[in-house]
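request received
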Amino acid sequence: MTSENLPVVVIAGRPNVGKSTLFNRLVGRRQAIVSDMPGVTRDRKEGEALLRGRRVRLIDTAGLEEAAPDTLYGRMRASSESAVAMADLVLFCIDARSGITPADAHFASWLRRQNRPVLLIANKAEGQAGTNAALEAYSLGLGTPLALSAEHGEGIADLMGEIAERLPPAEKQRRREAPKVDAEGEEEERPAGPLRLAIIGRPNAGKSTLLNCLLGEERMITGPEAGLTRDSIAVTLHDDQGEIRLVDTAGMRKRARVEEHLERMSVSASIEALKMAEVVVLVIDATLGVHEQDLQIGRLIEREGRACVIALNKWDAVEDRNATKKAILDRLEISLAQVRGIPVVTFSALTGAGVHRLLPAVREVYEIWNSRISTGELNRWFEDALERHQPPLVDGRRLKLRYMTQVKARPPTFLLFGTRAEQLPDSYKRYLVNGLRETFHMPGVPVRVQLRGTK
Ligand code: GDP
Ligand code: GDP
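response:
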């Protein structure tokens, strides 16, 4: 096998984090000049490494930093762009002793968009050094950081194993990867293309009427599309921000005509639509008020982690609008506490009055669903929250909660670290979730907090 056909592993990161040192470690010869002065090594270094029996082509991007544009970030990016483009795996290094710098964060967000597999490395973590930075590194959204020391050779065997696991299968080398998907099969990154929207609700809530109204307003075309299941028809709307794809609309029409088992069916049908959607519009017949089934669908939306807008339809037929709205909002607030502050839009799909407010509300909640909070901001709030309301005693001892970081968006998901954190009572977790939602303005989206015990 020539070097050209080997899987390509690229070492990237800002100057001085230890890229060259790591390169030497993996290649096993002292090929690169290592120095304390940033940007001293000048040439792009390549070498072959043998990792768990697999030969790989290793590229060190240190030294490419000088030729490039004048900001540090610009240099990092320019130096890495061509290398990353051809990478089967990027080893993104940070310095665990200095912590995450703005340049690291910037580069990480660019790297996430490159759609290449990334292994995050917290270097200079010999002994127990750098544990905090390693935790902090979760916030980069590049998965679990691997703490190691290139200079002292600690963690290198683990690293080799991790790399070997992430390489494409030998026969499929050089193939492009699909978008990154997490363990639950959810996309971690905002995919290119239209926002995916589902309109769901009980039979006769007015979903078809709403769809026709939206289509009439937007003068859009519907039609079968390749790659979709036989009876699913893609409908695309346009608003001032681009395209919105409606999912599972064919199923919706068909089911609405079935007379039997309507109640049960509308929930199971909702599950399908939900899974395909990013944002869900839950249509409720305002003349009937909130039905148990609406709540069931609402809970489903939260369980599946989707963003939600509640549409109170048939507003034209509602007599006392103030009282109706208050009654419905109260019921939702009490029974759907998981999704506090969901945006509620009132309209009449029949006359079209108010329907123009729906898509802007969808866009807004979509942005929130995708949002990320910086680790600094998050932990400033977290310290405050702990002070205002101490964590409870469990078995007579107070839980020590240390640190929080956002690991994922879509929906916003946070990891909470602390001694015995996994024993945190639900009530306190709810306190944190509600605080997060309020402070960082995340109404209408599920907010997840996962607990991680540390020693
Ligand atoms: P590069 O600019 O990213 O290629 O970084 P270098 O490999 O040139 O390393 C920069 C500095 O960090 C050098 O002084 C190295 O000796 C030091 N260094 C590299 N790895 C480690 C490590 O694991 N622990 C410590 N403490 N220092 C390291
Ligand atoms: P679906 O089963 O959710 O798709 O509901 P449809 O769109 O078929 O509507 C069910 C019934 O409600 C039809 O008779 C519609 O004309 C009526 N409807 C839908 N939207 C409105 C509305 O905004 N106001 C009123 N008064 N009736 C509506």
